[in-house]
């Protein structure tokens, strides 16, 4: 059987990349055996063929030079061979040429002004483009089509006079591979409307709450000062016990004075965050994702994004109009006014099938396998090709838009490993120029095999100032994420990993402490309370509480950026589910009654955060400072750790020395202390910025507990 052609791509105006299912003899791949045939009957011959990386006279990949340039806008082509069969010609490297198809500055999307609106869209393979303008998000009433004109670099544009505010728009494309009867949503749309392909044309200044453009945003002296609290908009307030009026909505995040209905002393919502003392919230995805935006929608975390520049309407009081923009801005402003920064969890590594990228520019915005299929390093069906020039530009434009328009303070990148390193470095540089001190961090891994080489992992982000989640400290503290393997808090294992964590992993996989995001719980995997139920099922409730307090002490005493999951401070449970992205509110909601049930664990988290924020020696800004001030003493037992911190001469530090004592053993352990009268800031049961006791020559720690002392 002859080898079959499996993929043909137009890589230059006169160059085709051809791939066979298996290696074939180079001598058989002669120019006269191939030709291009268009759907209009045109034929283009092949001038030459060249094998790529031949081995022993055989290859599966070839370059074919055509006799004349290929008209890819006006005709669909197939590569035809009497010997090897036929395969469609798809767009390839030609569109990746920045000299031909990259414009770094022309404003894309709908640019509204009272007197006119200009529409621009990147659609280099279309033969014609029109913009639809209508009075409603669907239907033909007052639906008008306006021809767009081709500009340079594959961009089309038209300016329509008159005030189009609150009109709806979409694009219609014609040419090979396009359906002229289908409306396509603008990837730059800022106010999508449910599943309608039409988006709202908005005067963004009208969406600002009073004082929004000029209100002050919280500032940090250094990223290591951050204490980040991850939360889901709906989870945080949807429970009946939240005391919030706008349950599950952006506006629910703005409410003050909320508390448990049966106990006004137990704060909930925004007041809880202020009481806890975190510096930032990290909102799980709020960009428009694959849903109907109605109350009847099944629960979803939002990690299947459709349109990156528009908030999702599921969290707004109305999915119509501009409520989604206004109410998200109100939430951000409410956080800022209480001294809390806002970080967005963004998912630029893949999209939902609803997204318009492939419909606007086929074979451009997504990475492909060698067989012409979507690669799936995200585990969600596709992965965004961030290295494509206009794809990279879109990503940068989108992030800048969120910083400028919504005044956000940082971004957490889902599967950051799939965003190429060059793009991540440009993100850091260009966003820092707009918002100095902005926090940029993410997951330094992929979810599956990817053609991206190399992966943007934590080692390739060293010394960049971009943070990476430290799964090493997570596993050291509590063990594997979903199984029964224990960590230090259960059995005293993983001592070396714990030591690395306490010094910011600077001798393991980071250069500077701002590059490690320390955590032991996030939205993924089992909650820590559920992990303890699985890994130490025979332990008492009190012992597990003590383990939770020990985990908090380790986290907030580790150098780097501190990160916590909503509800971990009062033993959040998801009833044993390790992947609750589509499970109902009963599993995902924040159960505020647990704050009262586990008041000791809640108070301990609050106390440890207060200690961390008061003592700069717990959040040193540089590698050099850590190497000078953090050291380890010989522990009294192999399942214990003694960490010494030198605070002398450190600006703002009131303690000359601090001692971190950790006992992972299942029995009490006695520690010998250096000479001096040590003040106790935290022990097995409580923690606070003000000392509540003293220790002399010795201190005995109960099983699975820690102690923090200052001198």
Summarize the structure in words:
The chain is of the alpha+beta class and 711 residues long. The chain has an eight-stranded parallel barrel with strand order 17-20-23-24-25-26-27-28. Helix 6 packs parallel to helix 7, helix 8 crosses helix 10 and helix 12 packs parallel to helix 15. It is globular, with a radius of gyration of 29 Å. The model has no long low-confidence stretch (mean pLDDT 97).
Defining key terms:
711 residues, alpha+beta, 36 strands, 20% helix, seven-stranded mixed beta barrel
In short:
It contains 16 helices and 36 strands. With 711 residues, the protein is α+β, with helices and mostly antiparallel strands. A hairpin with a 4-residue loop joins strand 12 and strand 13.
Major sheet size, sense and barrel closure: 8 strands, parallel, barrel
Query: Which structural category fits the helices and strands?
Result: alpha+beta
Can you tell me the overall shape? globular
Specify Rg, calculated over alpha carbons.
29 Å
Mean pLDDT: 97
Helix content: 10-25%
Strand arrangement, largest sheet? 17-20-23-24-25-26-27-28
How far is the first residue's CA from the last residue's CA?
Answer: 81 Å
How many distinct helices?
Answer: 16
Proportion in β-strands: 25-35%
> Strand tally, please?
36
Low-confidence stretches at least 5 residues in length (pLDDT < 50)?
A: none
């Amino acid at each position: 059987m002859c080898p079959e052609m499996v993929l043909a791509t137009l890589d230059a105006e006169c160059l085709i990349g051809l791939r066979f299912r298996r290696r074939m003899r180079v001598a058989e791949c002669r120019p006269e055996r191939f030709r291009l045939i268009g759907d209009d009957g045109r034929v283009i011959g092949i001038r030459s063929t060249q094998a790529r990386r031949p081995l022993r006279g055989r290859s599966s990949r070839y370059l074919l030079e055509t006799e004349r340039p290929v008209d890819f806008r006006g005709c669909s082509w197939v590569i035809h061979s009497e010997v090897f069969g036929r395969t469609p010609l798809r767009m390839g490297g030609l569109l990746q040429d920045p000299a031909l198809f990259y414009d770094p500055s022309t404003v894309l999307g709908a640019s509204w002004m009272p007197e006119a609106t200009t529409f621009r869209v990147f659609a280099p393979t279309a033969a014609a483009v029109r913009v639809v303008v209508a009075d409603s998000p669907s239907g033909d009433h007052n639906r008008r089509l306006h021809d767009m004109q081709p500009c340079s670099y594959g961009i089309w544009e038209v300016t329509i006079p008159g005030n189009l505010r609150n009109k709806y728009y979409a694009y219609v494309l014609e040419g090979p591979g396009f359906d002229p009867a289908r409306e396509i949503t603008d990837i730059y749309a800022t106010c999508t409307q449910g599943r309608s392909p039409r988006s709202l044309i908005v005067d963004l200044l009208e969406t600002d709450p009073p004082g929004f453009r000029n209100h002050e945003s919280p500032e940090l002296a250094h990223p290591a000062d951050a204490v980040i609290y991850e939360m889901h908009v709906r989870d945080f307030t949807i429970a009946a016990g939240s005391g919030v009026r706008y349950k599950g909505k952006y506006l629910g995040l703005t409410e003050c004075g909320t508390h448990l209905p049966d106990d006004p002393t137990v704060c909930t919502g925004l007041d809880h965050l202020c009481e806890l003392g975190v510096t930032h919230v990290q909102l799980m995805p709020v960009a428009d994702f694959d849903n109907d935006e109605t109350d009847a929608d099944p629960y979803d975390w939002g990690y299947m994004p459709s349109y990156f520049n528009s908030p999702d309407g599921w969290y707004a009081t109305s999915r119509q109009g501009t409520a989604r923009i206004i109410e998200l801005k109100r939430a951000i402003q409410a956080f800022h006014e209480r001294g809390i920064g806002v970080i967005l969890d963004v998912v630029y590594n893949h999209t939902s099938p609803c997204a318009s990228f492939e419909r606007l520019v086929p074979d451009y915005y997504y990475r492909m396998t060698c067989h012409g299929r979507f690669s799936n390093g995200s585990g969600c069906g596709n992965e965004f090709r961030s290295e494509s020039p206009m794809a990279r530009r879109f990503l940068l434009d989108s992030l800048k838009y969120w910083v400028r328009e919504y005044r956000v303070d940082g971004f957490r990148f889902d599967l950051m490993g799939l965003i190429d390193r060059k793009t991540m470095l440009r993100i850091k540089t260009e966003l820092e120029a707009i918002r100095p001190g902005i926090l940029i961090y993410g997951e330094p891994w992929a979810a599956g095999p990817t053609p991206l080489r190399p992966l943007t992992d934590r080692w390739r982000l060293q010394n960049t100032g971009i943070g990476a989640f430290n799964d090493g400290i997570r596993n050291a503290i509590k063990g594997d994420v979903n199984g029964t393997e224990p960590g230090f808090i259960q059995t005293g294992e993983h001592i070396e990993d714990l030591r690395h964590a306490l010094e910011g992993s600077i001798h393991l996989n980071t250069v500077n402490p701002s590059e490690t995001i320390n955590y032991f719980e996030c939205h993924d995997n089992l909650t820590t309370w559920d992990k303890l139920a699985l890994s130490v099922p025979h332990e008492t409730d009190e012992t597990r509480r003590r383990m939770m307090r020990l985990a908090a002490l380790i986290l907030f005493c580790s150098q780097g950026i501190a990160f916590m999951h909503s509800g971990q401070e009062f033993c959040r449970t998801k009833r044993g589910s390790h992947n609750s992205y589509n499970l109902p509110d009963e599993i995902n909601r924040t159960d505020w009654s647990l704050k009262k049930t586990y008041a000791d664990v809640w108070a301990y988290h609050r106390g440890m955060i207060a200690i961390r924020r008061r003592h700069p020696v717990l959040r040193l800004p540089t590698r050099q400072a850590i190497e000078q001030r953090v050291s380890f003493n010989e522990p009294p037992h192999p399942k214990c750790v003694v960490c010494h911190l030198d605070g002398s001469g450190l600006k703002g530090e009131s303690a000359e020395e601090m001692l971190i004592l950790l006992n992972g053993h299942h029995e009490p352990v006695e520690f010998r202390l250096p000479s001096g009268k040590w003040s106790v800031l935290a022990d097995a049961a409580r923690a606070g910025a003000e000392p509540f006791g003293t220790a002399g020559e010795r201190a005995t720690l109960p099983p699975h507990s820690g102690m923090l002392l200052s001198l």
